[in-house]
Design a protein that fits this description.
CATH architecture: Roll
Number of strands: 9
Largest sheet: 7 strands, antiparallel
Helix content: 10-25%
Number of helices: 5
Structural class: alpha+beta
Shape: globular
CATH superfamily: Electron Transport, Fmn-binding Protein, Chain A
Distance between the termini: 16 Å
Length: 160
């Protein structure tokens, strides 16, 4: 028998960083706040990014096979909040944020962040309400040193 409260309490204790995931599909660009991200392999350099299955960004990753993760710095909670909102409600999320297109993927990356990685999707698992993408890191840039923004420091909960 699953104790729902215990499950929720413990799953919310898993530490998560917060990232802006930039995506593209042809000329269309978007971004969303990602928190279910982890490194999965050294060689080749792989990471896992879990993306809500019913989101437009997930469809863009599926079509293009690429994404980029901008690493937010502690104190950038407002930036993370801006990218939580669906594009259909707020329009171009990059309109008021300085960004570039990453050279290997063409995905948008933030200029004001710790740095970014660019990824090419190698596989996906379709179970539950998120798609689990396994991707190879094919590009990276460090802008500055600093502490990453963590979900627990925001007071938000995404999980459980």
């Amino acid at each position: 028998m699953l104790n729902e409260q215990a499950k929720k309490t413990l799953l919310r204790k898993i530490p998560h960083g917060l990232f802006v995931c930039g995506v593209k599909d042809g000329e269309e660009l978007n971004g969303f706040t990602a928190s279910w991200v982890m490194q999965a392999s050294f060689e080749p350099p792989l990471l896992v990014n879990c993306v809500r299955a019913d989101s437009s960004s997930q469809a863009m990753i599926q079509n293009s096979g690429v994404f980029a993760l901008s690493f937010l710095e502690a104190g950038q909670k407002e930036v993370a909040a801006q990218f939580f909102k669906p594009k259909r409600r707020v329009g171009d999320k990059f309109e008021d944020i300085e960004s570039d297109l990453a050279p290997a993927t063409g995905c948008p990356v933030l200029k004001d962040c710790l740095g970014y990685v660019e990824c090419r999707v190698l596989g996906r698992v379709e179970k539950g309400d998120h798609i689990v993408y396994v991707a190879e890191v094919i590009g990276a840039e460090v802008y500055r040193e600093g502490e990453p923004l963590l979900l627990e420091s925001t007071g938000w909960q995404y999980g459980g």
